[in-house]
Amino acid sequence: MRILIISFAYPPLNVIGAFRVSKISKYLSDLGHEVYILSANTKISGVKSEIEINESHIYYVNYFDLYSYINPLIGSKNKLLNLFGRVCRFLVSPGSNRLPDWRRLLWISPAYRMGIELIEKHDIDLVYSSSSPPASAIIASRLK
Length: 144
What we know:
Layout: E1 2-7, H1 16-30, E2 34-40, E3 58-61, H2 67-74, H3 79-91, H4 105-122, E4 126-130, H5 134-143
Helix pairs in contact: 2-3, 4-5
């Protein structure tokens, strides 16, 4: 079976959501399935985690991360910019447990387009999404 897993987080990103999906993809690969990963191309700093499947089956999609522009405002010496940054950070949460998840909304369209290409190119039988964030489920729902 050819399986497409959609997950915002995947190694080398070193977060618990990436580990969970990494282990699922490794297990499915070990069972003989062809597993393809569609994930966000996130900026990685610090410790990186190991990729356990064929790296040619992993597709990272670039996206515009609003938070990377909001975060520097918070450290600003300009009180107005600092306040604006704090309000924006409240609205665009760094976490992913808010609906709507404003921070990852801009990942949905490019990931959806890549998902269509992968389904056609690899004749995908099953699409699986991992949440959180909700954007992964939205992409999978649109691809169905």
